[in-house]
Write a structure and sequence with these properties.
alpha+beta; 2 domains; six-stranded antiparallel beta sheet; six-stranded mixed beta sheet
Amino acid sequence: MLKEIRIISLGIIDDLTWDIDHGLNIISGETGSGKSLIIEALEILFFESPGDSVIRHGSEEARVEAYFNLDVCSPQGLLEFLEERKLHSGSNDIVITAHLKKNGRNIFRINSTPVPKKLLEHVGGLLLDIHGQTQHLSLYDRSTHLRLLDKFGCTAEIRDAYSQLYSQIQHLLHERARLQTANNDIAKRRDYLYFQMDELEKAGIKPGEDAEIEKELIKLTNIETVKRLSWDIYQSLRGDYTSEQSSAFDCLSQALGLFSRLAEIDPRLTAQFELLQETCDKTEELGYEVRRYVEELDGSPERIEELGNRLELIGRLKRKYGGSMDSLLLQQKSIRQELEDIGNIASNLDKLDNEIRELMFKMADLAQQLTSLRLNAARELEHKMEDELAGLNMPEVVFKVCIEHTEETGGLALSGKEYKFGKDGIDNVEFFASTNPGEPVMPIANIASTGEISRFTLALKNALAGADAVPTMIFDEIDIGVGGRSGEVIGRKLWSLGRHHQIICITHLPQIAAFADSHFKVCKTSRGNRNTSTIRALNDNERIEELAAMISPRQYSEKSLDVARELSLKASVWKKEQ
């Protein structure tokens, strides 16, 4: 339930705070006083993209704050939705804020946490149902009729199960179309992939091979330096008998002979002798390894050319397949996988066909259940609407819910026929009505006047009252096109709707306002040579005066006061009887 709304620097509103009650809340006031701006603030908070023009002249920013109480009547799933996103404060209160800035980024928050506007649209849809001065004309849009019927028939569980299967099937159909397209081009594509794979496999490129070749080429292009350094190292380590300079091995061998005699004299030096022996052996071995390295060096021009050609091949393939060794090897893997997939396309298509067929069979069963629920709900809604419309002085109006199905080859198979289907099933739903006896029923959009569509909307809201989980309903001048004689019955319906929901209604009709549980007046006052809107709750005497002013807008009289008292008394008596 909406507990309070505060509006700062929006339109002609400077700073307005409104505490809202349960039941039927009536807002009245002169034209242009800013009544609808209060509703517009809620639309900006949840549903609309505000422009700079909504910010009060002379201000750089505006602010809208709405305080809600999440009681036991709150929509199912709202708390879970908030908790999943860590937006629930832990209490039953939720604060939603819009901070609007001129030439800046608007900021929206839930319980002080910034959130995207898209998320607020979802939350707003769970908390509020706003029918603005033209929004209640949405009944003219047949696309809303299925949603309204489903709400009345409580089809959510079956519809959601159907929708999940529908989504799965759409995904599989998309995958099947992809595979079929690939299958259609399979011969040409396969030949091309085999050519690429043959080229890559013949090359036999290994990870890091290019870097190894580059290192070897550097070595081979400096072969004389490498040989000279290696030979000098060999001479220093092992040398040969023709060398004039003693090698490290010669020196170590001489020291080893001396150490042998020393160890014979003092056996405690045996370990050191053995260590020197090991060092001498390793020095000799290292010397021979260096010599073998020099002897095995192949610095021939043929080897250099061979490596250069190999490096050139790798470079060409790298450029062709992505620009690097990693991308080349990844492409090779991808080609191999695609060839494998192509080989499996036929079997995959068969597998997909079987899976789609099985899911379509399950979906057909759910679609049939959904249609059955809707047909039953349609008949029940027709009876309920008959009672509601009679209570709105439309006793001769006939209301019908038309459910049709379109046959389509390749559609959903039911009872030996195939039907066009979508995410909501196979049913096309539209509301029909006849407003005059003897006239055939026709689509509501074709026959209902503005005043009639307002009453149709209200009748539907009352019919859906038990199924509609939205806690707060807002009607901005639902009395458009409605005369005073129908105002009383609309007032009664709004009050009845207020037993299940919090109702906020802006009206100019005293016959409707008389049924208010709480009555608020919006006034335009002057502050510092500027006009601003204010709202205040009316006490019993003020309510009578406001009703009288609504009866005689220019100058209410004692007579209009008497009429106002009579309207108020009549409404009070009726409410007590309910």
